[in-house]
């Protein structure tokens, strides 16, 4: 039984640490790999990325498997959350062995951040190592294959998509071959997820599955957006982050190709995308449970599914988000504007 989430990839678990209120609106999300780690690669296309340990994922470099990927709020400050995840992994003796003692490990924890500074009202309210530890402990304590909480949680707590509230979304698909491909996305884009003429979500338009809002609803939504935007500071730095996971056995080079083509899923659902004030970053994670044939074109189905899963995850994250009206700004949700269709 699948739950239409990244946890449909066997062994992959997700944990959120969320903090809101009293000046806070931020958090951290950890994608925890199965015991033994997974092949992980990355593709960065935004002009303003904030990342950690991404060079280690280059196929030319020595690290072959990692145990966790961290997505966090707090801009570059929030990357400190990875330190808490690293400490927890060391306690579990998970990481790159660097000595004869099984406790002598160095966990490699790739991380990427979104800009959400000040959105709760306090610029200094940002994730730290303790936040990262709470998120990875939540992932470890979760049941394998459990549903993933979506919307304004974890790294999506302070996320904004254009002029509306963003959040965390996830989706999965099982191919005819039996391979599972899934995505988890933090939607925090400078571009818009809404087609301006109709109010429909770009991510649904591209899939041909959309009920257009009534014109009166769309006009009311536009007025509401203009009112809320007038109360906010000019749009700051943004970033959309994603982890695409599969149980297929991929090399680091193949995983990097998957990370690259998964950006197409962002481009279908957010316009414009990959701007200089975005830090759009996609990680690809392959557990290796299902072998692929040596035919290079067998990868095509996984590449296509990864992009599709990212688009659906963005739509689900936006639809799950809840409105925010606080000292840091006003961001109505898509559901408030157009109803939960």
Task: Describe, in plain words, how this protein is organized in 3D.
There is one protein chain. The protein is α+β, with helices and mostly antiparallel strands and 341 residues long. It contains seven helices and 16 strands. The chain has a five-stranded mixed beta sheet, with helices on one face. Strands 3-14-13-12-11 form a five-stranded mixed beta sheet. Strands 6-7 form a two-stranded antiparallel sheet. A hairpin with a 5-residue loop joins strand 11 (168-174) and strand 12 (180-186). Helix 1 crosses helix 2 (129-141) and helix 5 (252-269) packs across helix 6 (299-320). It is globular and about 65 Å long. It starts with 12 loop residues before the first strand and ends with a helix.
């Amino acid at each position: 039984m699948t739950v239409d989430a990244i946890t449909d990839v066997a062994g992959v678990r997700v944990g959120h640490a969320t903090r809101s209120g009293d000046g806070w609106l931020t958090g951290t999300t950890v994608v925890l790999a199965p015991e033994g780690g997974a092949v992980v690669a990355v593709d960065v296309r935004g002009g303003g990325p904030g990342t950690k340990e991404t060079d280690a994922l280059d196929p030319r470099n020595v690290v072959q498997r990692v145990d966790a990927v961290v997505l966090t709020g707090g801009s570059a400050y929030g990357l400190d959350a990875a330190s808490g995840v690293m400490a927890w992994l060391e306690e579990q003796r998970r990481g790159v062995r660097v000595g004869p003692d099984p406790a002598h490990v160095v966990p490699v924890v790739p991380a990427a951040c979104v800009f959400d500074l000040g959105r709760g009202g306090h610029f200094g309210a940002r994730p730290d190592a303790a936040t990262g530890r709470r998120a990875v402990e939540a992932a470890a304590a979760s049941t394998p294959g459990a549903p993933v909480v979506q919307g304004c949680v974890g790294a999506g707590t302070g996320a904004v998509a254009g002029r509306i509230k963003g959040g965390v979304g996830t989706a999965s698909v099982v191919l005819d071959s039996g391979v599972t491909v899934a995505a988890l996305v933090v939607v925090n884009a400078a571009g818009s997820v809404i087609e301006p003429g109709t109010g429909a979500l770009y991510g649904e338009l591209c899939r041909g599955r959309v009920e257009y809002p009534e014109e009166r609803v769309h006009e009311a939504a536009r007025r509401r957006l203009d009112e809320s935007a007038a109360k906010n500071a000019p749009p700051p730095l943004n970033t959309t982050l994603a982890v695409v996971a599969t149980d297929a056995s991929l090399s680091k080079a193949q995983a990097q190709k998957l990370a690259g083509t998964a950006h197409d899923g962002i481009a279908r659902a957010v316009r414009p995308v990959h701007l200089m004030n975005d830090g759009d970053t996609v990680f690809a994670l392959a557990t290796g449970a299902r072998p692929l044939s040596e035919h290079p074109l067998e990868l095509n189905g996984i590449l296509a599914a990864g992009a599709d899963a990212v688009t659906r995850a963005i739509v689900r994250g936006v639809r799950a988000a809840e409105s925010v009206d606080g000292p840091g700004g006003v961001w109505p949700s898509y559901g408030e504007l157009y109803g939960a269709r």
